[in-house]
Write a structure and sequence with these properties.
391 residues; globular
Length: 391
């Protein structure tokens, strides 16, 4: 086992929190010229999810950093000019196209594990490849049908085949159309300079560990592994050569590593006030969120309604570099409905109102209706703040 150097830098918990916020693009002036594509490169991965309340998660992530960027602009930024591809990273994620070579280790791992939980009918794989080659980008429905029945996981042979081809890297998801994946051959969708640049596993892992460290700013081994869903032993094998430096963070109680560029200058600038998707990379790992922000975050969409505490799609509110509340939103026509609001005391009222007002404007709502506030005495002050902001 490699002996790692002892940390020479000690960070306070607040130092680490600010480094994390800057690394995630939520402290300091946003790079508006780079836009959505700059956010994607900066984060290294933007998670996708089927749930859409105010918007889908991959739209909410750049919104949280750039403000009210148009939703069509977001989609175009991801999918035009072969700028990005979808693959398995932290989960199903949009990834910068230049990282295609660095997921070769995962494509090889899938190929080396041929037994999958879906049966692949004989000839289906070759038929999918042949059809895509002849007809160009297609959805699973256009390839012959995605499902055998209405059950979510009862995939057709065609869907099994094309998803396996996606995992193997012979097929790429080049966009989402009405939330359906649009598949094309990798040989057409990935630039030649990247398509055939097959790196060995060590090179892939070293790059992804470095990218995770840069995107996190500072993190533990578990944090770094979780970012692209690597195994702990994979991180251990390459972290000494990744370019990240060991640091000690007061109160963390475990080894940590930081991007050296993040240590070069203290984080300064304006904090964003915004609603965060539950799948935002700032907070997608619960233990890290609790350690950094002292904030327990859990998506309750898949929790039975009677057992929910904060709501179906509770979105944490970021303000002043802290998580100061939660809002479970919905839309009714031109009204943004705050179905349930949790506030971290009276001082959070204005920030939560600002976050709600900006989000309402972004999704073309003209007013906000507050239904339930966990501290009932704060409902009226919140409503009054909103009225002032929305005119």
């Amino acid at each position: 086992m490699t002996t790692l150097p002892r940390p020479t830098t000690t960070l306070t918990a607040d130092d680490a929190r600010r480094i994390v916020l800057r690394a995630q693009g939520l402290l300091g002036a946003p790079d508006r010229r780079a836009g959505v594509r700059g956010v994607l490169r900066h984060l290294g991965a933007v998670q996708l999810d089927t749930i859409s309340v105010l918007a889908r998660s991959h739209e909410l992530v750049p919104y949280a950093r750039l403000g009210a960027v148009g939703r069509q602009t977001v989609e175009a930024a991801y999918w035009t000019d072969a700028h990005a591809f979808e693959y398995w990273s932290h989960a199903a994620c949009i990834l910068p196209i230049e990282e295609w070579p660095h997921f070769a280790f995962r494509r090889r791992a899938y190929r080396d594990r041929p037994h999958w939980h879906h049966d692949l009918p004989e000839g289906a794989y070759d038929q999918v490849i042949k059809q895509l080659r002849a007809e160009g980008p297609l959805t699973a429905t256009e390839l012959g049908g995605a499902k055998k029945t209405n059950d979510w996981w009862d995939w057709s042979g065609t869907k099994v085949a094309v998803e396996r081809a996606l995992m193997y890297g012979e097929v790429v998801c080049v966009e989402r159309r009405g939330w359906k994946r649009v598949y094309d051959l990798a040989e057409r969708a990935v630039p030649d300079t990247l398509l055939h640049d097959e790196l060995d596993d060590t090179e892939c892992l070293r790059r992804l560990v470095r990218l995770a460290g840069e995107s996190l700013g500072v993190g533990t081994r578990a944090d770094i592994a979780d970012y692209h869903r690597l195994k702990a032993e994979q991180v251990d094998a390459v972290i000494a050569d990744s370019g990240l430096v060991p640091v000690e963070v007061e109160g963390w109680g475990r080894p940590a590593w930081a991007d050296p560029a993040a240590l070069a200058a203290p984080p300064r600038g304006r904090h964003r006030t915004t609603l965060l998707s539950p799948f935002d990379s700032l907070i997608w790992e619960r233990a890290r969120t609790e350690r950094i922000f002292g904030f327990t975050h859990r998506l309750e969409a898949y929790v039975p309604r009677p057992k929910r505490i904060h709501g179906y799609f509770a979105m944490p509110v970021l303000a002043g570099g802290r998580l100061v509340g939660r809002v479970d939103p919905a839309r009714e026509g031109r009204t943004l409905v705050a179905k349930q609001v949790t506030l971290d005391g009276p001082k959070a009222v204005r920030a939560v109102a600002q976050a709600l007002a900006e989000a309402a404007t972004w999704v073309n709502c003209t007013n906000v209706r507050v239904e339930r506030v966990d501290a009932p005495e704060l409902r009226e002050p919140l409503t009054r703040e909103l009225a002032g902001l929305l005119g």
